[in-house]
Amino acid sequence: MRHQYWSSPRWPPRANWKGFLRLSLVTCPVALYPATSEFEKVSFNQLNRKTGHRIKYAKVDADTGEEVDNEDIVKGYKVDTDTFIEVTKEELENVALESTRTIEIDEFVDRSEIDPRYLIRPYYLTPDGKVGHDAFAVIRETIREMNKVAIGRVVLTNREHIIALEPLDKGLMGTLLRYPYEVRSSEEYFDDIQDVKVTKDMLDLAKHIVNQKAGHFEPDKFEDQYETALIDLINQKRAGKPITAKARPRGENVVDLMDALRKSIGRDAAVSTEAPKKPGKKPRKAAAGQKEMLMPIAGKKPAKEAAAKKPAAKPQRKSA
């Protein structure tokens, strides 16, 4: 059951893929784990407004309307409106690709050469089992010393993907990459953008704003404001409080760009002066609010709910 942070044990990570990593004749068994998770986000079920019951989806035959058992469902490629080519699970498994069980490193490239549009999602790559750690270390340290990114191929969810491997602490981070046909050309979107001459004065003012806002990338400072607003909304509804719509910020038409830049500098300077006086919001406090809100919704008994609210038993969100 989702969101049982206070009672669920720490589950061991589950590999999405297991096989071998190979660099020429050097091979070692490895496991691939997802590096990100959506588990702790608030999620909703669909309900019948009249009864409050959950909506159940059934797989039915489009013509007969009868429900179809899972074992009778096969994949089909649509040729035209009423014609499909059926492909069974066994036939898909027989599409023999070496990358089904082996990540073969094909080449090494500079990280700067990888267009960000090709990045999909990150994974962690580790040795699988007690053997192969030496070979894994050799491959990892070679990539690190050469300051390169290794490019290979891996099959996930019955599709072959390009994967970029680079050292991360004691392991490797593998990032799935898109194929060229999956990346749209920017020309169809950018062609209509007007060529505007930006004056030096405007650029200098804009640079000053950037310098005022300069900082370092610290993910711990980020707070998911929408997630926090969802938690507040659900807590208010649980408490029977009326829900009032908040005023949406309105965009202003910029009449004088230079004037807007100058006002921005003054405003940002005032904000930066006042900021230390205000206690900053900590993401962990918002997370704790989510846990307190979600435990009763999960359907726990009153005794457990009361115990969960005691300071000593206050749950902690699992960190990534």
Please give a handful of descriptors for the protein shown.
single chain, alpha+beta, 8-stranded mixed beta sheet, two-stranded antiparallel sheet, disordered C terminus
Task: Give a verbal description of the structure.
With 320 residues, the chain is of the alpha+beta class. Helix content is 28%, strand content 21%. An 8-stranded mixed β-sheet has the order 5-1-2-7-10-9-8-6. The chain has a two-stranded antiparallel ribbon with strand order 3-4. A hairpin with a 2-residue loop joins strand 9 (159-168) and strand 10.
Task: Outline the fold blueprint.
Layout: E1 17-23, E2 26-34, E3 75-80, E4 83-87, H1 89-93, E5 102-104, E6 107-109, E7 119-127, H2 133-146, E8 149-156, E9 159-168, E10 171-177, H3 187-190, H4 200-212, H5 225-238, H6 257-274, H7 283-297, H8 302-308
Helix pairs in contact: 4-6, 5-7
As a percent range, the share of helical residues equals 25-40%
What average pLDDT do the residues reach? 80
Number of helices: 8
Distance between the termini: 19 Å
Q: Multimeric state of these chains?
A: single chain
Q: Beta-strand level of the residues, as a percent range? A: 15-25%
Largest sheet: number of strands, sense, barrel closure: 8 strands, mixed
Q: How many individual β-strands? A: 10
